[in-house]
Amino acid sequence: MTLRIGIAGITGRMGQLLSEEAAASGALVAGGIGRSGDAEALFAASDVVIDFTNALTAERHAELAARSGKPLVLGSSGLSAAQEAAVAEAARTVPVVYAANFAPGVTLLFALAERMAAALPPEQYDAEIVEMHHRQKVDAPSGTAIALGRAVARGRGQTLEEVGMESGRNGHTAPRGTGPIGFAALRGGQVVGEHTLLFAAGSEHIALTHRSFDRRVYATGAVRAAHWAVGQPPALYDMKHVLGMG
User: Fold this and answer.
1) Which of 61, 70, 133, 227 is catalytic?
2) What is this structure's pTM?
3) Can you point out the beta strands (E) in the chain?
4) Do 208 and 113 share a structural domain?
5) 240 an active-site residue?
6) What keywords were assigned to this record (predicted)?
7) Which residue numbers belong to the known binding site for NAD(+)?
8) Is 172 annotated as catalytic?
9) Which domain range does residue 220 map to?
10) What is the pLDDT of residues 37-90, one digit of tens each?
């Protein structure tokens, strides 16, 4: 039976790529909505919905996924704690794949970051994350940068909230603290996405960098996640589960 994929955000740049990749995967695009549209009808017509809209609609779409019993693949960034809690609540009823970044390489970057953070003590190695995106991006740091910070904190046996974030350094600042993770966000041109994690010690620096050159890599990953999600038990998943790393 042909998988029916619904696309929330179909009128945007990612929406077109998602439509193309869904068709290339052998699935049927059951429909789509843009900034407006009948989201309830979209879930009813689909076997799984991919949502690349924005944080403001994430909670509503999560609730519709749970109500309709349809899996959700969520790629919106900049969600608040309350919005993430709503997504987690929906995942008690249906499978939800929620990822800050659907590129397979970024998923591997998160895994490497966690392992390296576990091996490099914060008293000796400061962790700094630098990201750059196109000039239209409105949230900073990016969702991927924050997820990278969470991976570093996990490797050090803490949460990002416990470790702390340092960002927006400007003017005469105090010396860098020991332990917090530094973030710097750059915006300009049409950069698809670049993320660098730097571990800096007195005697060495180690850097991990991922660069996306085409947004299609996110669409390909999201469609892969949509195929994978159908038939999974209710839970909150991310791309490491889709790639068999969970």
Assistant:
1) 133
2) 0.86
3) 4-8, 28-33, 48-51, 72-74, 95-98, 126-133, 165-167, 181-187, 193-200, 205-212, 235-237
4) yes
5) no
6) Amino-acid biosynthesis, Cytoplasm, Diaminopimelate biosynthesis, Lysine biosynthesis, NAD, NADP, Oxidoreductase
7) 9-14, 75-77, 99-102
8) no
9) 4-102+215-242
10) 899 999 999 999 999 998 889 999 999 999 999 999 999 887 888 999 999 999
